[in-house]
Amino acid sequence: MKIVSTVVDLRDALRNSKSQSFVPTMGNLHAGHLSLIEQARMVGDCCVASIFVNPLQFGANEDFGSYPRTMDRDCELLEEKGCDLLFAPTIGDLYPEPQTFKLHPDPALADILEGEFRPGFFTGVATVVMKLFQCVFAHAAQPGHAFFGQKDFQQLLIVQRMVQQFALPITVHAVPTSRDFDGLALSSRNGYLSQEERREATALSQALELIRGAVLAGGGDLEGLCAKQIENLRTRGWQPDYLTVRRQADLQRPAQSDTDLVVLGAARLGRTRLIDNMLMNRGSA
Ligand code: AMP
Description:
Blueprint: E1 2-4, H1 7-13, E2 20-25, H2 31-40, E3 46-51, H3 71-81, E4 85-87, H4 91-94, H5 107-110, H6 114-117, H7 121-137, E5 144-149, H8 153-165, E6 170-175, H9 195-216, H10 222-235, E7 239-247, E8 260-269, E9 272-281
Parallel strand pairs: 1-4, 2-3, 2-5, 3-4, 5-6
Antiparallel strand pairs: 7-8, 8-9
């Protein structure tokens, strides 16, 4: 695997490739990230990963400084998985001058849920993803392929919408969430959990699963179902930000006739903020 840190070196390394598959990450790789690499390896002629902890998407009180950075181990894992090229820029490489031009996603999609609790987050995400796409795909002879996890479902929708509205020659592939043995969605932030918190952490996916089961069994009071699980998490010591059932297509509140739904949740356990979601189709219940 070749490792480059500058945009010039990245483009040089891609000179002889016709179609790239690309997996953007913030590093501290786990099996969820590696499942994206596995999928990416199946298309295109060069599998590119990036590792960049993007300061633009962190709020002032968030964990930019303490976000786990494990470059050597990440390189080993990418190499083992057959990744061809790693783009690991420094902040100065990717933002040689302050990034004052930014991409603001549709507030109807980006200012709700995660965007409500992390103001500016999706502007930071959309801006860095657009920039990374320019770096990786700008000179491609054929359309590219980008891989995103369903674990960050709102992010996936925003990237899909961005690609569509800017007519980027990129196919966005959605990869299902990888989970640990007890259902906890894999996340770099799981490493912040104490042993005791790690045992408790499974309660978030359990709450989502209970809501999904109740909706599929015909439960129509979505707000009531979610309120019950929010209360349960609070009693167990969590600080939930939201648990809610939305339409898969646009994350708005579903009407009776909507069938493709997603239950999304975010909650803080101690100093760790966890997010998760589960898809459901109540037409197929
Ligand atoms: P991150 O490094 O957290 O920015 O994530 C990089 C990519 O990996 C994003 O597209 C995430 O949605 C995806 N990802 C993170 N965790 C998981 C998981 N447990 N399963 C599948 N994809 C994931």
